[in-house]
Amino acid sequence: MRTYVPSGREAEELAAGSTWYVVDATGQVLGRLATRVARVLMGKDKPVFTPSMDTGDHVIVINADRIKMTGNKLEQKVYQSHSGFPGGWKEVPAKRLKAQQRADRIVREAIVGMLPKNKLQARRARKLRVYLDAEGLKRHSGQKPQPLAL
After folding, report:
1. Are 114 and 45 in contact (CB under 8 A)?
2. What is the pTM for the complete model shown?
3. Chain centroid to CA 111: how far?
């Protein structure tokens, strides 16, 4: 039996009707939320999923400041970045990011880090919106987002 694999144009036409989902992060564990959202962004649950095509849906994550981190991750996890200049190494603990009302960066980095590292990663990451509270959902009322059951 032969397996049908849609070509580039066919897969784009089948996935053209991407839907918008909203996820409430209140009380959710960070890693479990990130894997489920990354799966929706990739389109893994769609019948037209093709690894080389972007067939995923848009996801809005609200209440990112109410996310849970298990164990001692809040005290021990460190986010690192480099500006590209000498001495430009920065380390920020997760606890400080959460205290500075930047929990959206914690959630975004966890989700984007679970996407495949290929040419489609940036395009899939653009389909993700993360907000600290439910006020951000008002910006996307025109898209009529559906709640995503996790």
Report:
1. no
2. 0.89
3. 4
